Structures are given as C-alpha cells and as structure tokens.
Amino acid sequence: MPALEPAKNKLNAHSLFGGSMIIAGTIIGAGMFSLPVVMSGAWFFWSVTALIVTWFCMLHSGLMILEANLNYSPGASFDTITKDLLGKSWNIINGLSIAFVLYILTYAYISASGSIIEHTLKELSITFPARLGGFVFALIVAFIVWLSTKAVSRLAAIFLGAKILTFLLTFGGLFLHIKPQILLNTTEANPHYLPYVLMTLPFCLASFGYHGNVPSLMKYYGKNPPKIKKCLLYGTLIALALYIIWMAVTMGNIPRPDFIEIAEKGGNIDVLVQTLSSLLNSPIIDLLLIIFSNFAVACSFLGVTLGLFDYLADLFKFDDSGKGRFKSATVTFLPPIIAGLIYPNGFIYAIGFAGLAATIWAVIVPALLARASRQRFGSPLYRVWGGSTMIILILLFGVLNAVVHIFASFNLLPIYQ
Ligand SMILES: N[C@@H](Cc1ccccc1)C(=O)O
To answer: Which of these, 11, 212, 239, 380, is most buried using a 10 Å CB contact count?
Structure first.
C-alpha cells in the first residue's frame, strides 16, 4: 500500500479514487487465491452468498473503527484508540492478534511466492524448487523493506497498477471461457453444497481484511467521515465484485470434482493456475494469469510486511538507522522464512489461521470500540447506522468465525473430499 501523507488542510482534495484504491489494494491479495479451493464444496451460489455476508460485516466493522477513530486526532493509531477505549488487556490481545495475522500472512506469501516462482520458471523450462524460490523472494522483499518505506510505497504503487491491469486483461479473457454447465455443475448427480458453506467463512474474512488501514485513511484525509466512508464502501465493493468474478471464472472452468485433487496437492497457487491453464489452452491467458499472480502476491507481500516491520520496530524500539532497520527486518522476516523452508506448502492453513486471528482485531474489537466510543464520547462526528443491533450482529459474526475455524481444525465440520 502506498505511504500516506498527513492531511495538509481541512479541505484537502485527496481524491476518493486514491483512498478506494488503497483499501482495494490491501484487501485483494493472497486470500483470494485460497477462495476457489476452499469454496469448491459450497460451490458458486453459496460462495457468493458467503462473500456478500462477509463483505457486509467487514465493511461495517471498518466503519466502526472509523467511528471510534474520529474521537482522536488524525494519526492516532489502532493501538492508541484500543488502549484508551478498551484498556490494557484488550490492547494486548489486539496487538498479539495483529502481529499473528501479519506473521502468518508473511509466511503465506513466502509459500505462495515460492510456488508461483517454481511454476513461472517451469514454463520457461527451468527447474527451480519452490522452497528456494520462496526464500529468495523473501530476501528480496526484506531488502526493499529494509531500504526505506519510500521504496516500498513506490514499488507497491507500480505493482498495484500492474496487478489491476493484468487482472482486467486476464479476467476479461477468462470471462469468455466460462462454461455454464461447469459453473452450474449440471453433470454431478445430487450434489450437496450447503454443508460446506460454514467452513468457508474464515477464508472470506481473511480475504476481506484491510482494517489496519482505516487510521491511515484518517491521517490522509483528516476528519472527513463522508469521504472515508465512501472509500471504505467503494474499496470493499471493488473487492467484492472482483471476488465474485474470480469465483465465476474459476468455477466456470474447473469442474467441481477436479478441486479435490487441487486441495490434495496443498491447494497452493501454482496448482490452481496450472489446472486453469491446462483447461484453457490459451497461451496468452496462461501468460497473463502467471503475470497477474506474481504481481498480486508481490503487491500484498510488500504492504503486509511493511506493516509488520513498522509494528515490530515500534514494539522493540528499534531505531530507524541502517542497523536498527536491519534488526527490525530480521525479526520480521526470519521466523516466516524458517517456517517457509521447513514447511513450504501450508498456504491454505495459513489463510485459515489468518482468518481466525483477524476476527479478533478486524471484527470483535471494532464492534467493542464503537460501543465504547458511544458510551464515552457519544460519537458526535459519525455513528454507524443500525444502533446496538448492528454492534451485536458484527460481534456474532466475529464469534461465529472463530467457532467455525476451531471446529474445522478439529475436523468437526464436513470437508468436500
Ligand atoms: N485481505 C488480505 C489479507 C489481510 C488480512 C487482514 C488485514 C490485512 C490484509 C489478503 O487477501 O491477502
């Protein structure tokens, strides 16, 4: 995500477009690549339903952070707001869950980039093990993050542009290939979809995560709730639309039973991309898909690790000198790199656990923040609609996600296999 400048004046004219893109750019990332695999049981209709429900709840939990944030001066971080409104214990839980999500996502990106690099080089007839690919990629990203925030923001902006461009080209092409009989799964006799829908929720939740950026938007636009509200609405809507198209093109090309094999192979990006391209028989789309997946992963990788880097630098009080930044880069990258070397194929698991931890700081804590903000300040500048009912609804959604993921981890939910 590009670095944000502080708001220069109250009537600042930062465009709506920029803020919406920051939100959409953060949302659309690795999570998206887990969706077709984990949603193959629930298939198209129920997946879209789960995505819409998650979109609604994640948009409102983001708005609740905004509601609480507006009581503080622009630049106040998530940490400041939570400590002040909910107290020390919640702040520790919040901080731990943020660090956990960022760490596990960094691991997911290393795993994903390894598999993407292996697949890309295989197309060029070069054999390169995924483990090594992930390792090298992580070192490059670590170097860029160590260099400066500016380097990250410039590169992330370029990658975001490339990601959107290749997305449009790729999916424009894929759209024409959708086969209705595959999308509607007409060949399977008596299929069951509904039992598989619950387990998809934590993955949808992870895929709609962006909440660390709400305070950044306030820093960017100043106290301008109507504008920030629109950014959240448009940014999340762009992501929702894109995910629905993504479901349609993957499920409209890969027959449902084929997903069982993809999942058995670990469900990593390369397997999905490979299956898609073997079915399409179009070298151009194949190439675009590869370029797109590389950019999508690289862009979110930079954004998320920059967040983790700043968070850890602040936590351990490492300074901004070359040496201090080296220490921060080491604590940021070393644990996920080691995990990626030992266990390179845990992509899908990682996204599921990201969903479990994200439900704390991106759903439950925001709902509690909005409640506390109303009690303490009366939320004079902006209040999310729906009163306490909305707060309760969001809390229920958050708890449901946690319960689902815990049940799924103990194999208590049906799995499509
Ligand atoms: N939504 C991001 C992951 C993410 C989760 C939580 C916060 C920020 C980012 C993705 O799909 O990759």
So the answer is: 239
| Amino acid of residue 37 | V
**Under a CB-based contact definition with an 8 Å cutoff, are residues 355 and 202 in contact?**
yes
- Look at ligand 1, atom 12, and give the residue with the nearest C-alpha: 29
> What's the number of domains the chain is made of?
1
Give strand ranges (E) for 210-311: none
Domain assignment present for residue 1? The answer is no
For residue 373, the enclosing domain spans 13-409
- Rg value, the chain, Cα: 21
- Ligand 1 neighbours, Cβ below 6 Å, are 26-27, 29-32, 101, 105, 206-207, 209-210, 212, 300, 304, 354, 358
376 C-alpha to center of ligand 1: Å? 31
Rounded to whole angstroms, the Cα distance separating 152 from 387 reads 40
Q: Looking at residue 9, what is its pLDDT?
A: 45
Assess if residue 159 is contained within a domain. yes
Lookup: tokens for 343: 């266990």
pTM of the model: 0.90
Tell me the CATH number at 232. 1.20.1740.10
Question: What are the residue ranges in the chain where pLDDT is below 70?
Answer: 1-13
**CB-based contact 374:383 (threshold 8 Å):** yes
- Cα-to-centroid distance, 102 and ligand 1 (Å): 9
234-260 tens-digit pLDDT: 999 999 999 999 999 999 999 999 999
DSSP of 95-129, one letter per residue?
HHHHHHHHHHHHHHHHHHHHHHHHHHHHHTT----
Q: Is 344 helix (H, G, I), strand (E, B) or coil?
A: coil
